[in-house]
Automatic annotation (TrEMBL):
<keyword id="KW-0732">Signal</keyword>
<feature type="signal peptide">
    <location>
        <begin position="1"/>
        <end position="28"/>
    </location>
</feature>
<comment type="similarity">
    <text>Belongs to the 'GDSL' lipolytic enzyme family.</text>
</comment>
<dbReference type="InterPro" id="IPR051058">
    <property type="entry name" value="GDSL_Est/Lipase"/>
</dbReference>
<protein>
    <recommendedName>
        <fullName>GDSL esterase/lipase</fullName>
    </recommendedName>
</protein>
<dbReference type="GO" id="GO:0016788">
    <property type="term" value="F:hydrolase activity, acting on ester bonds"/>
</dbReference>
<keyword id="KW-0378">Hydrolase</keyword>
<dbReference type="InterPro" id="IPR036514">
    <property type="entry name" value="SGNH_hydro_sf"/>
</dbReference>
<dbReference type="InterPro" id="IPR001087">
    <property type="entry name" value="GDSL"/>
</dbReference>
<keyword id="KW-0443">Lipid metabolism</keyword>
<keyword id="KW-0442">Lipid degradation</keyword>
<dbReference type="InterPro" id="IPR035669">
    <property type="entry name" value="SGNH_plant_lipase-like"/>
</dbReference>
<dbReference type="GO" id="GO:0016042">
    <property type="term" value="P:lipid catabolic process"/>
</dbReference>
<dbReference type="Pfam" id="PF00657">
    <property type="entry name" value="Lipase_GDSL"/>
</dbReference>
Amino acid sequence: MTSYSNFALLAILSCVIVIGSIVCGAEARARAFFVFGDSLVDSGNNNYLATTARADAPPYGIDYSPTHRPTGRFSNGYNIPDLISQKIGAESTLPYLSPELRGNKLLVGANFASAGIGILNDTGLQFVNVIRMYRQLEYFKEYQNRVSAIIGSSQTKSLVNQALVLITVGGNDFVNNYFLVPNSARSRQYPLPQYVNYLISEYQKLLQKLYDLGARRVLVTGTGPLGCVPSELAQRGTNGQCAAELQRAAALFNPQLEQMLLQLNRKLGKDVFIAANTGKTHNDFVSNPQQFGFITAKVACCGQGPYNGLGLCTPLSNLCPNRGQYAFWDAFHPSEKANRLIVEEIMSGSKAYMNPMNLSTILALDAITT
């Protein structure tokens, strides 16, 4: 008798990839998409908040199609959620605070992410008014109540259970907390390995709450090469070398995060949480930028000071003419081209990049079980 795994494999192989979307038989209906996290995935929530952590002035958005204007994304163009939406055949999710997010737009999903936040509530305090993780989850519950008023509670439950979820958080807990200032409160409280353990345990609680709120397919990204971003090269690096302690933090955090996700899946008895090793992808083009068509992975396209790594991008900043040749858009954030490379690995990467499976496999499996 053919095993289920063989049947699933045959079914997956019978699916056809059309413009990045997987279709089995009839055209697949786009699923809802929810986004949680920090500035790497914020699509404009902070535009509606009194905070300094915002990207609503030029030249942010210079390559954003079709307007070429700032949107609140910390990018020259599309960010990771936009590109994932394109891959699953959906329109980009709107920021939850956007007044446009109402009616049928709600059924597309929502982006709850907010620049400056971390796993911990005390991360990013300098940005004052941002949507911390506990509040993002409260908004997710509120969102479900709003949708229930439109399509009923049963259909809302199905929409959420069948949705794709992305969460990107953790980097700020190092950059804007532990290492923010010498002898920070958190660094006095914990040696780095113990701080990482604490972050992982707190992250697990957040993910469990996300599951309790109905999330059943969750892409969880690790941190990038924290010590290699232009900001850290400018402030802590020596002779263009990555900042060692921040690199050590990422090297401790990412493997523990992956192990925690696999343990959560074993506890739940199903593959809910998918470890997206975006740090590995980012390290690939930091270590060999030319292989990916970049002229540099050290200097930001937009900024000022050494490596264009001081402060955020402003209308007065240095601005490179060809954004596609730079791995970093500003002092902290990848360029749109780098985001595209990251999403390609999310879609089709091997187990070293996507554990236990990549997004193409998820889409194919879910297409035969729904």
